[in-house]
Amino acid sequence: MTSRKTGPPPVGDLIARCLTGDVRAFETLVRTHHDQVYGYACRMVGPDAADDVVQEVFLRVYRSLHTFRSESDFKTWLYRITTNACLDHLRRMRRQRGRFVPLEGGGGHADEGGPAWGGPERPDPGAVDPALRAEQRELAEALQAALGRLSDHHRAVLVLHDMYGFRYDEIKDILRCSLGTVKSRLFYARRALREQLRPYLDAAGDWPASGASSVS
Amino acid sequence: MRCSSELLSAYMDGQLPGPVRARVRSHLVRCAPCRRELAELEALRQLLAGAPAPPPPPGLAETIVGHVRFREAERVRRRPRVRFWQGAIAGGVAAVLVVALWWAGLDGLSRMGHGSAPPAVEAALMEHSLYASLLETGAGDWVDWALVPAGDGR
């Protein structure tokens, strides 16, 4: 008997199985997508609130799977739900705390001594140069703080395009706005971020670690 | 062409139509500040694309599935009770509405016949309608018209 290595089943199959009450299929769906959703939620609401938002996202996904049309793109649909959950959370926080909501925990879930958001591998702290680690952490915190100063909608467009690699037309579908709005929000978000991160841009935009992986 | 940061942002993303793109390209050849700005924009894009993704905390997938299971179980557990109360409330409201409409209808009917005009006018109307109906049915033939004030019902 030979065992074959296979990737996760196609999303359409998983959803069909979920709709018949197959809990394992839903678990697979969560395992396949939760890390990306978590990363996006971190950028949108900050890591302290991201856990709760991601749980809310998958609850909404579970409850609205029957509305998903197979001809649509699942990733776009998932990011639309995530964006809405993030915006709802931020609105709720603003009602509770006042207008400004800082994105707490800019350093992420980094372990003591580990790099801030040092990628899924979580490198052994002993293997990373402390000076480099401090530099990484400083940049990660500066980036998260700069993102937090953008308006929610500007931040969403910027993160989706420049960090997650979505195209303009996909962002238009996720945020249900026009292409012109996407273009203009991206321009304003970049302009604001460029001002705030200028000291780091002088180093040709490179992250302090050569092994830093793209998330898009 | 004048300097435009917005056009540079769209130019970097390849989102400009051909003729505009060509104009921006030729502008960049002549304009050093715009070249610097484009270089900064590209550095920013590189910085953002290379930012390490925040890794999810260990066990988040299990927490999510557990949360969804719990909330769904809670929803199922609550559903019959909610339905019962919703039904009871809806039934009560409907009953009150029916009684209120019935009452309003009766009241309205009675008001159409009585009390919708001053007593003197109402009395005159009643007399008029009575005489008119007597004339129409022929019953007026045996009415003693001498008793009826002149001009009324004839």
Record keyword descriptors for this entry:
heterodimer, A: 216 residues, mainly alpha, Rna Polymerase Sigma Factor, Chain: A, 9 helices, 63% helix, disordered C terminus, B: 154 residues, 5 helices, elongated
How do the helices and strands line up, and which of them pair or pack?
The complex is a heterodimer of chains A (216) and B (154).
Chain A: H1 11-19, H2 23-45, H3 47-64, H4 74-97, H5 130-149, H6 152-163, H7 168-175, H8 179-196, H9 198-201
Chain B: H1 5-12, H2 18-30, H3 32-50, H4 60-113, H5 119-137
Number of helices of chain A: 9
- Largest interface between protein chains, with number of residues from each side: A-B, 59 and 34 residues
Give me the CATH superfamily of chain A. Answer: RNA polymerase sigma factor, region 2, helix turn helix motif
CATH topology term of chain A: Rna Polymerase Sigma Factor, Chain: A
Count of alpha and pi helical runs of chain B: 5
Number of structural domains of chain A: 1
Q: For the record, give the distance between the C-alpha atoms at the N and C termini of chain A, rounded to a whole number.
A: 38 Å
Which class best fits the helix and strand makeup of chain B?
Answer: mainly alpha
What is the CATH architecture term of chain A?
Answer: Orthogonal Bundle
**How is the quaternary structure best described?**
heterodimer
Instruction: Detail the poorly predicted runs of chain B.
Output: none
The helix/strand series of chain A, from N terminus to C terminus, equals HHHHHHHHH
Taking all residues together, what is the mean pLDDT of chain B?
79
Explain how this protein is built:
The complex is a heterodimer of chains A (216) and B (154). Chain A is built from nine helices and no strands. With 216 residues, chain A is mainly alpha-helical. Chain B starts with a helix and ends in a 17-residue tail after the last helix. Chain B is mainly alpha-helical and 154 residues long. Chain B contains five helices and no strands. The radius of gyration of chain B is 44 Å and the shape is elongated. The interface between A and B is large, with 59 and 34 residues.
